[in-house]
Amino acid sequence: MADAIRITTPLTDEQVEKLRVGDSVLITGVIYTGRDAAHKRLVDLLAEGKPLPIDVKGQLIYYVGPSPARPGMPIGSAGPTTSYRMDPYAPTLIRQGLKGMIGKGEMGPEVAEALRTHKAVYFAAVGGAAALIAKSILKSEVVAYEDLGAEAIQRLEVRDFPAIVAQDCHGGNIYKEGRAKYEVK
Amino acid sequence: MRDVHVNEIVKTVADLCIAANYQLDEDVIESFKRFREKEESPTARAILDQLIENAAIAREGQFPMCQDTGFAVLFVEIGQDVHIVGGDLWAALNEGVRKGYGEGYLRKSIVGDPLRRVNTKDNTPPVVWTEIVPGDKITITVAPKGGGSENMSEVRMLRPADGLEGVKNFVVDRVSRSGGNPCPPVIVGVGIGGTFEKCAWLAKKALLRPIGQRHPDPFYADMEVELLERINKLGIGPQGLGGRTTALDVHVEVYPCHIASLPAAVNTQCHAARHKTAVI
After folding, report:
1. Strands B71-79 and B127-133
2. Active-site residue list of A
3. What is the pTM of this model?
4. Chain A neighbors of B234, CB-CB under 8 A
5. What ipTM was assigned to the predicted interfaces of this complex?
6. By the 8 A CB rule, do B191 and B264 touch?
7. How far apart are CA B41 and CA A182, in angstroms?
8. What is the pLDDT of residues B90-120, one digit of tens each?
9. Secondary structure letter of residue B135 according to DSSP
10. Closest listed residue to residue B157, CA positions, set B258, B81, B35, B12
11. Which residues have C-beta within 8 Å of that of residue B176, sequence separation ≥ 6?
């Protein structure tokens, strides 16, 4: 994964359009965490016409439930969780201006469509490489849903967070393309 | 009879929970290196490098190698000449998990009810499998099991007529449909025979066998080798991003079976193949 592209959040349409499947990126800036239970609450709020506890415009949501931080450390181990579980929620947040997600595993056609229509991007982080990824997280604070414990929404400050463009806004999908390239019939 | 105090069981389980989550065994790390040498995809090689580095960071820094520190699955072999004193074995196993997950800064991932879903906050209860064996020792294995790979597991009640080919096709199809979701490269535990629940247990137990150690029966050893080759032709690769390294190994365990049945189970283990054992 040589020649990683450095990107800084928040992201614009122009930045997202330049990213292509297979690109390695190093992300710097603020990212938000959120997984199943938090997503359900966010989407329920929107359905009721209420404001979200975080402004998602231009932002990235990282699908992660970190392990607890040791005293003096910014965070515990923090690798990605499986993304398909967020398929029912991600398009709604993308319509609100979310520019991307970070997780692991393929996301469904409804997400691919939202990435294309609203210029967003899905990054894969290496699942299980949680101690390694934690080194790129400088600071974390819970900003919503503290009662959810490991599933609370946190604001992370990251420097050179390693990820790979897995599904881009041009319809590219590394899970299909990468597999086809190496499959032996 | 030999007396074993429950306090010793509590401490052993707590220590094993922490060690299993911080220290990946050498057989797994060696297999990352071996597959890396053969891997054709540059992205896949880079991911395997990250996994090797991650294991080292976790071991040296005393961090969990994966944030999903799992459901604590406990295999407890109790010698028939052991007398457990000082309290309740089940309570001791729970207390060991509570202590280990608390003191080790491990993530608490268990909800107390599967539908109402309120976190128990201490990762209890564990899933416990006890076996009564000869002798006066207690052997405890803690195998933390992450949700992502567990979700890609399956039991299927095949027909006896489906036979060897039917089972092999089921295993390959299960891994194929799982794609990148279970954090490949995976270890594939296969249970064949017994009953509905026994084959699932066998598939779980198969995950405890070291990578590269074949089934003692050459018939099943050959099946393991063939399944590994077929799976690594699927192209899924590390994290599902394409490559030759989809599985590190396939382990098959079998049990006698009813004339009408052919149960088979696949239990998928992510690359963080964690388990630690102690003997009391």
Report:
1. parallel
2. 39
3. 0.94
4. 179, 183
5. 0.92
6. yes
7. 8
8. 999 999 999 999 999 999 999 999 999 889 9
9. S
10. B258
11. B234, B236
